[in-house]
Protein: GntR family transcriptional regulator
Amino acid sequence: MNIENNTTRPLFEKVKDDISARIKSGEYPAGSKIPTEVELIKQYDVSRITIRRAIEELCKDGLLVKNQGKGTFVKERKIFRKIEHNMSFSNSCIVNGMTPSAVVTQRTVLTKNSPGRVPHPSLDQDAILYIQRVRYADEIPVMLENNYFPFTQYAFLLTDDLEGSLYDLLKSHGIIVGCSQNSYIDALKADSKQAQLLKIAPGDPLFLLYTEIYDTQNQLIYIGQEYIVASRYRFNYENA
Structure:
């Protein structure tokens, strides 16, 4: 490809724009390695200085990241979410211009003697519905979602399609999410099972978001424990 120099715009800006367009189109997907300097010089028929300037600008813009000794990679996009805002994962993706999806990995009923039950007065009943899903943004796994529901009220979730928005599904059953309570964020390292499901390395950093979700009548809908890949998510806090 020959970048024509028939305008007053610098060559590095034209190279930058072309690489940026390839990233946004998916030709260079998130996490992938872009061609080397030598390959880009041949591809665009420009000098090494021009290529280096274009790469530097793309790194400043947050589209690329250099990995010493390994090359230059397309930076994985992060989902930005206000920490105080009760927003579903699906809506968080949409706000960030990404496509949400989900894969159910576990869906089972826990009895009082089952290991892994979350202690909570509203869940003190014979059966709890446990649902685990991997949540994706643009087909990249971002979150391992573990939700615990009072089984009697939410038995329909055993058979309903859970590949879309949980909040929208609940709304279709006349259940409106009102607020979250007792939420907190912790930091931890991924164990081998979490790493496998999220396609990361064991020991990679995770956020743990614990929250209790209530309906508009202040009745518990579920307790959530979300394990979020730290490199793919960012919580924003804004002072009032």
User: Anything to note?
Assistant: The beta strands are 64-67, 71-74, 79-82, 100-111, 127-137, 140-150, 177-189, 205-215, 220-229, 233-236.
